[in-house]
Amino acid sequence: MNLHSLDYWRNPSGVEIPGDPLRFLYITDEAEHMMVSALAKQLFAYQQAAAGTNRQMTKMIMITMGALLPGVLLQDYIHHCATPDMPPIEFGTFGVKCYYGPGQPLEYPEIVQPLSIDVRGHTVGVVEDLIDLGGTARFVRDILCSPQYGAREAVIIAPYRKSRAALADDLEVLTFGTIPHDTWIITPRERVETMVKRVPFWARNGASKADCLANLQHIGYPQYILDDWFEVAWKRGG
């Protein structure tokens, strides 16, 4: 297993935790940057293939909170590396909540922050951190393309997808890699969130404090996070 290899991150495996139905994949800072760099190349290829048509993306929506990090990294490539024949892209945000916590999806996605820019008549890139069966992607696509917002088309952009169902013909999707359905990705922006929500789950299911700490170390948490914040997570459910 070479964590510095881009090929490893295209189809990685999460680690198993005793008594937990989920596997956990800890995304390193380096991996996040490598994946978004690869996504930027895909996006540029899409823009070049759509040159001269209204299918080129001119707006980019980051779904908060998960897509803010990949979206900001993607903006860096778009702003500084796009060729002169590509149109400028305006970035905005749209808050959609899909999960309460690891392995706890909401029954229906919820809009928690209004759309921040006008997308009417534009082809929109929608940045997410993960496509899970495509339900949220379709929800966002459909609402952006509804009469309320009036987008012409939406292209879903995400580092990972969990199911080939997300690649159905009715969705335009740009992704980097695939992970199994039982795997929870821990992105750089949600390391503490995952810890403070999962440690109480383990404790309720009989794990000791030492067990919980060992679980996080096995997942790949660095010592500085454990030193600074593990006690907070343990007090939530220990």
Strand content: 25-35%
CATH architecture grouping of the largest domain: 3-Layer(aba) Sandwich
Number of helical segments with 4 or more residues: 7
CATH top-level class of the largest domain:
Alpha Beta
N-to-C span? 33 Å
**Quick check: average pLDDT?**
91
> Helical residue percent?
25-40%
Number of domains: 2
Give the overall shape, derived from the CA principal axes.
globular
Q: How many strand segments?
A: 10
Order of helices and strands: HEEHEHEEEEHEEEHHH
CATH topology annotation of the largest domain: Rossmann fold
The rounded Rg comes to: 19 Å
Write a structural description:
- The chain is of the alpha/beta class and 238 residues long.
- It has two domains: 29-178, Rossmann fold (3-Layer(aba) Sandwich); 190-238.
- Helix content is 38%, strand content 26%.
- The protein is built from seven helices and ten strands.
- It has helices spanning 6-10, 29-49, 68-81, 135-144, 191-204, 209-219, 223-237; strands at 15-16, 23-26, 57-64, 90-101, 104-113, 123-127, 130-131, 153-161, 172-178, 183-186.
- Strands 3, 4, 5, 6, 7, 8 and 9 form a seven-stranded mixed sheet that branches. A three-stranded mixed sheet has the order 1-2-10, with no helix packed on it.
- Strand 3, helix 3 and strand 4 form a beta-alpha-beta unit.
- Helix 2 (29-49) crosses helix 3 (68-81), helix 5 (191-204) packs across helix 7 and helix 6 (209-219) crosses helix 7 (223-237).
- The radius of gyration is 19 Å and the shape is globular.
- The two termini are 33 Å apart.
- The model has no long low-confidence stretch (mean pLDDT 91).
